[in-house]
Amino acid sequence: MSETAHADPRRGSLLIIGGSEDREDDMQILERFIALCGGPDKRIAVLTAASRVPERMWAIYDAAFGGMNVTSRKPVHIASRAEANDAAMAAEVAQADGIFITGGDQKRLLALIGGTGLDEALHAALARGACIAGTSAGASAMSAHMLADGKADLHPEKGTVSLGAGIGFVQRVVIDQHFSQRQRLARLLTVVAQNPFLLGVGIDEDTALLIEAGGGIEILGAGAVTVIDGRHMVSNVADIRNRSVPEMVDVRLHLLPSGSRYGAAGDTATPAALSDFLKIVTNIA
């Protein structure tokens, strides 16, 4: 990002984290989250609905954000859809300067908040200029098409991965996390084989994809972000049986290591092959 973008962070942004971000040492990703929220004096809400042990999850981030001198921080524990429709709670979340969505189970998260007042509040906060971060399950939930379940080990396999409805901050992408550490390339290729309209985004641990609305993207942290583009692909996936390995010809793979920046004024020109990806992911709502 340009220096101007860093100086004016309140544009509405997403910080999509591949899980296991550093919470004790240099905390680069969490520090950037606080900066994007406007500083340690801003209001931070930690949404723990993806976790079955929300108090334990809150304790982790309470300590981390407390160590960064964030004074106005509070948990948002949701145990039912009725709680997710509480008007007072939704209004408070809508006015937060930053919302951090923790890890756990993305299916649980969407079962509790999808289509509720809290769901609407998250979108309202983003539109107002807040930063919304999600790690692990919270990262997968960011897109409209959410990787819900499935496993593919050595090769992509038809029918082994399922999608669900996510929160929908970004469209036409599907996000996987713990990407390199859990060897999930075959899983993401399976998604793209069956859904070539979608771009696959795999985010390594302690790594984040920062997206600013109408702006650019930046990769933070220790690893890389992998982008799989199958829109020009030639494949036999429609004709093979489930559990078979599909033919996938002319699939594009982009590797964006930490420090990569595209789309903001003054940055390196965006390669043509990445221009569509940039337009898609920065169209956040």
UniProtKB/TrEMBL annotation:
UniProt-listed SUPFAM superfamilies: Class I glutamine amidotransferase-like
EC number assigned by the record: 3.4.15.6
BP GO annotations: proteolysis
Keywords in alphabetical order: Hydrolase, Protease, Serine protease
Lineage top rank: taxon: Bacteria
InterPro entries in the cross-refs: Class_I_gatase-like (IPR029062), Peptidase_S51 (IPR005320), Peptidase_S51_cyanophycinase (IPR011811)
Catalytic activity: [L-4-(L-arginin-2-N-yl)aspartate](n) + H2O = [L-4-(L-arginin-2-N-yl)aspartate](n-1) + L-4-(L-arginin-2-N-yl)aspartate
GO molecular function: peptidyl-dipeptidase activity; serine-type peptidase activity
Root EC class: hydrolase
Active site: S136, H178, E205
Function: Exopeptidase that catalyzes the hydrolytic cleavage of multi-L-arginyl-poly-L-aspartic acid (cyanophycin; a water-insoluble reserve polymer) into aspartate-arginine dipeptides.
Family (UniProt): Belongs to the peptidase S51 family.
Protein known as: Cyanophycinase
Organism: Massilia violaceinigra
